[in-house]
Amino acid sequence: xxxxxxxxxxxxxxxxxxxxxxxxxxxxxxxxxxxxxxxxxxxxxxxxxxxxxxxxxxxxxxxxxxxxxxxxxxxxxxxxxxxxxxxxxxxxxxxxxxxxxxxxxxxxxxxxxxxxxxxxxxxxxxxxxxxxxxxxxxxxxxxxxxxxxxxxxxxxxxxxxxxxxxxxxxxxxxxxxxxxxxxxxxxxxxxxxxxxxxxxxxxxxxxxxxxxxxxxxxxxxxxxxxxxxxxxxxxxxxxxxxxxxxxxxxxxxxxxxxxxxxxxxxxxxxxxxxxxxxxxxxxxxxxxxxxxxxxxxxxxxxxxxxxxxxxxxxxxxxxxxxxxxxxxxxxxxxxxxxxxxxxxxxxxxxxxxxxxxxxxxxxxxxxxxxxxxxxxxxxxxxxxxxxxxxxxxxxxxxxxxxxxxxxxxxxxxxxxxxxxxxxxxxxxx
Length: 429
Ligand code: COA
Hints:
binds coenzyme A, 23% strand, Glutaconate Coenzyme A-transferase, 2 domains, nine-stranded mixed sheet, 26% helix, alpha/beta
């Protein structure tokens, strides 16, 4: 963190603020609900000021950097591709840098030193501390390592608790705004997601600590946990579902070994109700990813259950969660961090979830061989449970033949015979 000279600019107009960014700078910005749209709008309007400014971000939600007239001014580089950035990455106009989210700090310290952090924070309290609000994750680390910190100070940004604060003396320039924090709503899952949710719930007991992502499957899992008690949360992100469980007292974090009484998360993304919930709420422990995603921290909670989604699994148990064919559509995020943390947790489990088919039932996601050129996200050595709408396959400790049989048993029935025949052919060759 910059603890040197007090800066003189402090509250400024947006043009003055973005003038601190120079051509060739590497600029880190927050993702998801934390995107600083007011500052970015002014960067875009003044794009002629910049050549080859490198933008580092995990998870673009609503960004204007992906049009052809932007590419000579801004080069986007992400460890987590999203639907917004995937075409630019595929066509070579943006870059993808593989990296576990737990290692963002290492990345900024060793390989991608940050010139400027554009942050999105709450107004200062009476002691001069602003909160990173919805997104502490990698952006607090980015701000700690940046030479220059420019802040979008938003009255609507909640004041989240935890390691979530930056002092105004450590900010070079602040621009005030009153912008609505972006929301995202998960659709209710259909019958496939509900079956997956029901199976996952069988792996979860009273008192367990959970890592859940966003989307229809985590929402479906929660529907089957209504009768559980004393659940805990330690998760890279949190959306509305767990908040409702906290309000209902089903998640109370009482049985955790660390951060007892609080849900530990690095960012939230959901409704305005969620953003109001994290405001001044010490039961929400918002921490950087260097803590939340660190397997050595995750493992300290016993009975840790990590639940992550994936796209394809081969019969050896190799998990693909970031690519479809040759196209990068996502990133590892915290998947491997949490799989490994859960593996080291006493009585921990990790669960990979996916519907058994894709493309409207035309293709099986359980395959004999992975698609050519595709990257493995979670290795067969780390995979533990796999759940589809046809049940649960426990892979850890099983030999290759047992794994194949367990996975074929949870494949879609239309594909089981073909998988079995091709597996036998492969084994015989
Ligand atoms: N082959 C071809 N197409 C496939 C496919 C496959 N094997 N698997 C999925 N698809 C298609 C689906 O049909 C769907 O298409 P549609 O939108 O036209 O219906 C699309 O790809 C998305 O698949 P879906 O299963 O709905 O993806 P999702 O939104 O649930 O996201 C991941 C799944 C794996 C991409 C996402 O969870 C992710 O990014 N994971 C990696 C990071 C991670 O685990 N983070 C959590 C740690 S905190």
